[in-house]
Design a protein that fits this description.
- The radius of gyration is 21 Å and the shape is globular.
- Strands 6-7-5-12-13-14-11-15 form an eight-stranded mixed sheet. It has a seven-stranded mixed sheet with strand order 9-2-1-10-17-16-18, sandwiched between helices.
- It is an alpha/beta fold.
- The protein is built from eleven helices and 18 strands.
- Among the domains are: 160 residues, FAD/NAD(P)-binding domain; 81 residues.
- The longest helix is centred in the N-terminal third of the chain and has 19 residues.
- Bound molecules: flavin-adenine dinucleotide (FAD).
- The site of flavin-adenine dinucleotide has 42 residues, from α1, α2, β11, β15 and α10.
């Protein structure tokens, strides 16, 4: 084993765990440090997210590069989940978009936008307009409730928490040292690297890396979500409700569990969910299906999405063999396999073919190393 086959990963969230598992499978020696005290509090944004994999639906709010990463990540997720030691709920049943009659203009605008994206990004299936009968056939639980809808074939979702748990189990099985309760700075990681010449440092701390980016570069975008148990509701796929003030999605997980989300507020604020947001999320879900009236509220969560100024992801090389991978914003699950593949390509071959293909930004910067980190 070469020292170059050793990596210290900061942050056991989505990217940290995914990269950790892949590297250890390749025979690398991996160390993971995580600020949370244990598996049930770790995971940052990843533990709260709805984990929808919806590149066409998201094209309304992001760039073609992110859409292309999301498109290519879908088959990768199927494969990544299948290889894990525990089952992970993964579904590719498409996305349904609904609206009330008064929002029909917004729906036509969105349909035109998505048609244009489907033409522009090769390999994306076109959105399909559904009339009332087709809508009922696709989603019987909504029969008679909406006059029309838009169906985006092949879009997906997974159970983010099951994924995080399965990745953790594989790390345990492969005896990867995972140091809980170890909030770590980039300077400490560089000091560790100095004691382990040739080793790599991968900074996957999401918003926890804020102080190690230029001032103001990495910000949090607040999102509130509700987790419900609704035995009276069965939906086949994530459903989005267009609304001028509070667009929402309903992501059905296994056993009639639902993630209803999400607000998007320009604030670095993880305080508990507000009354207003909670009312809006719950009343919009009730408007989609009255069976949510008797649902039980399991959790109300708030987290911030790690976001760079242009809302796009980036890899930043701050020293030799030191990468900061961040800015996954509201698309972390959707694009993680693509970002992961581009980083692995660089670690193994020193090349950027995939990053260039997807337009994943790769920057260079410089940082100094002071004290030592003892693991
Ligand atoms: C409400 C909400 C809904 C979302 N829905 C979706 C969705 O449907 N689809 C989608 O694709 N994406 C979604 N996202 C986005 C997605 O969750 C994020 O983009 C993704 O989790 C970012 O991954 P990451 O690995 O960079 O960071 P994270 O997943 O946040 O992980 C960072 C980890 O680093 C740890 N850490 C922080 N500081 C330190 C430190 N100093 N030392 C050691 N460890 C540290 C944290 O505890 C955490 O475990 C959503 C996000 C939110 C908030």
């Amino acid at each position: 084993m070469h020292a170059t086959d050793t990596a210290l990963i900061l942050g056991a969230g989505l990217l940290g765990r995914l990269l950790g598992v892949s590297l250890v499978r390749l025979g690398w020696r991996v160390h993971l440090v995580e600020q949370a005290s244990g598996p049930h509090t770790a995971g940052g944004a990843a533990r709260v997210a709805a984990a929808m994999l919806a590149p066409l639906a998201e094209s309304a709010v992001t760039e073609p590069s992110v859409v292309a990463m999301g498109r290519d990540a879908l088959p990768r997720w199927r494969q990544l989940c299948a290889d894990l030691p525990r089952p992970v709920f993964f579904q590719q049943n498409g996305t349904l978009i609904l609206w009330h009659r008064q929002d029909a203009r917004e729906a036509s605008r969105l349909a035109a936008l998505l048609q244009a994206t489907a033409r522009q990004v090769p390999g994306l299936p076109s959105p399909q307009a559904l009339d009332e009968a087709q809508l009922s056939a696709h989603e019987p639980a909504l029969a008679g409730r909406f006059a029309q809808g838009l169906y985006l074939p092949q879009e997906g979702q997974l159970d983010g928490r099951q994924l995080l748990d399965a990745l953790l189990e594989e790390l345990h099985q492969r005896a990867v040292p995972l140091h809980w309760n170890q909030p770590t700075t980039l300077a400490e990681a560089l000091a560790w690297q100095r004691d382990h010449p040739g080793a790599w440092v991968l900074d996957c701390r999401g918003l926890g890396a804020q102080a190690d980016w230029p001032p103001g570069a990495l910000r949090g975008v607040r999102g509130e979500v509700v987790r419900l148990h609704a035995p009276d509701v069965t939906l086949q796929r994530p459903t989005r409700l267009l609304h001028p003030r509070y667009p929402i999605y309903i992501a059905p997980k296994e056993n009639h569990h639902f993630v209803i989300g999400a607000t998007e507020i320009e604030a670095d604020d993880r305080s508990p969910a507000s009354v207003r947001s909670t009312l809006e999320l719950l009343s919009a879900s009730y408007a989609v299906h009255p069976g949510f009236a008797e649902a039980r509220i399991l959790e109300l969560n708030t987290e911030c999405r790690p976001t760079l100024p242009d809302n796009l992801p980036a890899v930043r090389q701050v020293a030799p063999r030191v990468l900061q991978i961040n800015g996954l914003y509201r698309h972390g699950y959707m694009i993680a396999p693509a970002v992961h593949d581009a980083v692995l390509e660089y670690l193994q071959h020193g090349t950027h073919t995939l990053a260039q293909r997807w337009g994943l930004r790769w920057e260079r910067a410089g940082v100094e190393a002071p004290e030592t980190l003892h693991l």
